[in-house]
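Record minuted for completeness.

…
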Amino acid sequence: MTNLLWVAAGGAIGASLRHLANIAGLRVMGTAFPWGTLFVNIFGSLLMGFFIAWLTKRTGTSPEVRLFVATGILGGFTTFSAFSLDVANMFERGAMGTAFTYILTSVVISLAAVFIGLWFGRSFL
């Protein structure tokens, strides 16, 4: 249960930061393109890579730190960072085919799921 609280606390921080970044993107760049979302996806992925590299260099770091920062803060900031780390791990293992399959299916099926959800919600609600 304690691990869940670490993730929840970090998630609240990350989601709040994502919201603030989206507001800033709208105010600075306008509404023609989702600049805030693009920023959090790229910056969150950068932070995830840096954090995981930092964790591997350190010994004695508690699992709670990873849960709080990677799963909580960065997961709340953007789940794209977790997706990016999964792909990076596949590339580093040499599983190129699996990585490209994961990328393609994640993007295509997720987009299809959004459109199906929109259609379902608009048709039946």
